[in-house]
Amino acid sequence: MNLMRASVYTAASTAARLLAGLVVIKLVAWFAGPEGVGRLGQFMSLMSLLAVLAGGGISAGIVKYVAEYRDDPQRLQRLLGAALWYALGASLLMGVVTLLFSVPLARWLLGDGRYADLIRILAVAQLGIALANYVLAVINGFMDVRRLALVQIAGSVLNVALVAWLSHWLQLYGALLALVLGQTLWLAVGVPAWWRSPYFQRGMLRLRFDREMIGRLAGFSVMTLTAALLSPLVNIAVRDHLAAQFGWEQVGYWQAVSKVSDAYLLFITTAINVYYLPKLASIDDRALLALEIRNAYRFLLPLVVLLALAIFIARGWVTALLFSEGFAPANVLYGPQLAGDVIKIASFVLSYLMLAKAMTRLFVASECVFAASYLGLVYLFTASFGLVGAVYAFAANYTLYFLFNAWVARRFLGGLGQWSPQYP
C-alpha cells in the first residue's frame, strides 16, 4: 500500500474524528463563549498529556517494532507481551498520581476546584486508554490501514453520540465528561476488530517482563514522551501568558484559530502516523529512505498548501460556522498560523526520520530546544505585536525547526541531493 492509498483510508477516519472534535468545540462555544473555548484548550492539553502517559508513551515504539518483527513470530510475541506489561504498569502509576493531584489540577487548568471530579474520572480511565492505544498501535504496526480506519470511524461515531447526549443534560460539564469517556470507547470497537484480524494471536495478550524488549521500548518511548509532554505543557504556559497579558477572551480567539489548524492538519498528520512511521521503520536501505521522503514531499506539501489556502480564503465563514460571530476578531490570526502549518508539515516529514531510526538523544535535545525557543519567541513577539505575535512565534519557530531537520536528514542520508524535496 502506498501513501496515496493509505491517505484515502485515513482521510475517512480523520473526517470522523474531526467531526467529533468540532462538535465539542461548537457546543462549548455555545455554552461558554470565547472564555470557555480557552478553558477547553487547557483541559484538552491535560487529556493529550495523560493519553500518552497512559501507556508509557510507547505507541510509536510498538508501531516501529511491530513493523520490524511482523515476520518473526517469536520476537513479535516477546515484544507485545513486554509492551502490554509496560503500558498497564505506566497507566496505573499515572492514574494514581492524577487522582492525588486532581483538585490542584482542576484549579490550575480550569480555574475551579469543582471540576476535580472530571480529573478523577480521567485518572480512572487511564487503564482503558492505555489498552486502546496498545490495540491501535499493533494494528498500525501491521500497516492494516483499512482496519485501523474502520475502528477510528466507529469510535468517533460513538464519541459524537456521547457528546451530544451528555452535553444536552450537563451542558459544558457534559461535553468535557464526554471527551474523557469517549477515549475509552475506542477499546470497545478496537478489540473485536483486532481479534478478527488474520495476524491476531492469543499470545499477544500475555503479559511478560522481557528486559531486552522493555529496554527497546523504554529507549524509544523517551522520544515520544518528550514530544508529548513538552507540547501540552508549553501550550499551557503560552495560554497562561496570553491570559495574563490580554485576558481569557483573547486566548479564546487564539485557541479557536489553533483548533481550526489542528483540525485540517489532522488529515495529513494521521496519514503520516499511520503509513509513514512504520514504512520508514521497515526500510534499512538509505536510497529507499530518500525515495520515500521525496515521495512524501511530492504528495503532502501540495496538499497542505491547498488546504491552508482554502482555509484562509474562507476564514470568516469557517470561524462563524465552527464557533460564532463573536469570534470574528480571530480572523486576523489566520495568515501567519496557516503559513506556519505548511512549514510544520515540511518539518514533520523529516523529523520522522529521527523517530523511525531511534535517534533518541538528538530527538530529545531538539524537542527541548525548540519548545524553549517557541515559548521565548511568544514572549518576545507578543511584547512587540500583541496577540498576533503568538502566531508569528509559531511560524518562526517551525522555520527554525525545518532548517534543523534538513541538516539532520542531509547528514543521515549522505547528501542533500538524495532526499531533497525538489522535483527532479
UniProtKB/TrEMBL annotation:
One of its GO terms (cellular component) is plasma membrane. GO terms for biological process: enterobacterial common antigen biosynthetic process. Pfam families: Polysacc_synt_3. It is a multi-pass membrane protein. It comes from the Bacteria. Keywords: Cell membrane, Membrane, Transmembrane, Transmembrane helix. The chain crosses the membrane at residues 7-31, 43-67, 79-106, 118-136, 148-166, 172-195, 216-238, 258-278, 299-318, 338-355, 362-381, 387-408. It is found in: Cell membrane. The keyword Magnesium does not apply. This is O-antigen translocase.
